[in-house]
Design a protein that fits this description.
single chain, 190 residues, mainly alpha, two-stranded antiparallel ribbon, 7 helices, 2 strands, elongated
Length: 190
């Protein structure tokens, strides 16, 4: 189980890390006219599709075609944690080495968007206070890690839950000649 989680978690994480490494390039190539949220969540869904593949591989190859909801969820969660951790590591490198002014630019863009949104003065001030608070928290490396995990890990957890619901199987499938258990009994007799 651990090997399966590690392999598919690394594949998922490499896809996520590649996305993080390319997002700066994509933004510059499209002159900022790219919806980072759409691209980001699309990359997460593609990367976390390996939760399904890894869980199914575990069920069919290593667990005799059976897996409980709990075990399937744990496999998916393990894959999700490894992938998310690689994503966080890639973001930390990108942020601290190549984009140290990211949060200043992001906060300025959010403030500009809030100012042109037509909010009441009280609501606008509340929104600006929230943006400034988030910007101050982002100066702490621990908060950077937590915010980044909060960005990616929930997607992995949701996909792990859906995968566990789809792939759970308490009894092995029966083939044309009988079940896996019957086959194993026949093999052990010979």
């Amino acid at each position: 189980m651990k090997k399966n989680i590690l392999i598919f978690g690394l594949v998922s994480g490499v896809i996520l890390a590649a996305f993080v490494a390319s997002i700066g390039f994509l933004s510059k190539a499209f002159h900022g006219h790219i919806d980072n949220e759409v691209v980001g969540y699309s990359a997460m869904i593609i990367a976390f599709s390996f939760i399904f593949v890894g869980t199914r591989n575990f069920r069919d190859k290593y667990n005799q075609g059976m897996v409980s909801f709990g075990k399937a969820f744990l496999v998916g969660l393990g894959i999700s944690l490894i992938g998310s951790t690689l994503y966080v590591g890639a973001w930390l490198i990108e942020f601290y080495c190549f984009m140290p002014d990211y949060m200043d630019k992001y906060s300025a863009a959010l403030i500009q968007k809030a100012q042109h949104s037509g909010l009441s003065p009280e609501a606008l001030q509340k929104r600006m206070d929230s943006i400034n608070s988030m910007s101050r928290m982002y100066k702490n490396p621990i908060m950077v890690v937590l915010f980044t995990y909060m960005e990616v890990l929930p997607v992995g957890i949701v996909i792990s839950l859906i995968t566990a619901l789809i792939l759970k199987r308490r009894k092995p499938r029966t083939g044309a000649t009988g079940s896996v258990g019957e086959y194993q009994t026949l093999v052990s007799r010979n």
